[in-house]
Amino acid sequence: MFHSPIVQAWPISSRRALRIMLYSHDTLGYGHLRRNLLLAAALSEIEPQPEILLVGGMREAGSFAMPTGVDCLTLPAYAKQGDGSYRPRDLGRDLARLAALRSRTIRSAAEGFDPDLVIVDNVPRGAQYELDATLKALRAQGRARIVLGLRDVIDESAAVRRQWLRQRGFEAVRRFYDDVWIYGDPEVYDILSDCGMGAGLGAAARHVGYLDPTGRRDAAQAGADRMSVLAADPRP
Q1: Predicted TM-score (pTM) of this structure
Q2: Sorting pLDDT into bands at 50, 70 and 90, what band is 198?
Q3: Is residue 138 packed enough to be buried (19+ CB in 10 Å), middle (13-18) or exposed (0-12)?
Q4: Cα dist from 171 to 46, 182, 218, whole Å
Q5: What is the pLDDT of residue 120?
Q6: What are phi and psi of 170, to 5 degrees?
Q7: How many Å apart are CA 11 and CA 7, to the nearest integer?
Q8: Confidence tier at 12 by pLDDT (50, 70, 90)
Q9: Residue 124, preceding peptide bond in cis (omega within 30° of 0)
Q10: CATH of domain 6-228
Q11: In the chain, fewer beta carbons within 10 Å around the N or the C end?
C-alpha cells in the first residue's frame, strides 16, 4: 500500500496547506490519469488539506469525480501511434507546434500555481520534452520539491534502458529531481536491478509500495465514472 514520503519530509512547523501539482502526459489509455487520481485521493488526506492541480493531456479527465480540493488543467492532446511516435490527437498536424503550446501552458500553470510539490508521472522530461522549461524554472526558483513517479513494470528491461538513455532520463533526474518514487515492491519486481537503473537513479529512488484503489473510490463511484466517460461508445 502506498504511503506518501512527503508527509515525513514536510516540516510540521511549516504545515500550511500544501500546493501539489501532478503531471501526466496521457497519450494512450487511462492508466496515467487513474494513477494520478489515486495519488490525489491519497495526498488529499494530508492535514491541512492541500490544493492539488492535475495537469494532463486527456480531456476526459473532467468526466471523473475529483477528490475534494482537486482540480484539473487539460492540455491539447497527443495521440500515440503504433510505432511509439506521437501526433496531435485533434489539433492540426504540426507536432512541434503542439509540443511548444503544451510546454508554455505547463510552465505558465506552474508559475501561477506556485507548487510546493510536483509529481511527474513516468517520463522525466515529459512527452516531447515538454517539461524541460518548467523543470528548469522550478529548479532555478529552488522552492518546490520535484518527484518522479514510476510504475515498476514499464517494458522489457532492454527497451526501458534504451529509452532512458536516448531521452537522457538519468541526466534529467540528477539535474531536476529530489526523489523517485517507484510504485511497487522490490520483492515482487525490482526495476532498479532488472533494468540496470540503480546507478543512474542513485539514492533518489525508493520503492513506496503499490497504489491501492480499494477504499479510495467505491464501486458506485467507479461505475458512475465509467458511464460518464464511455456513455454509449461501443469501442473497447
Answers
A1: 0.82
A2: confident
A3: buried
A4: 32, 18, 40
A5: 95
A6: -65, -40
A7: 8
A8: very low
A9: no
A10: 3.40.50.2000
A11: C
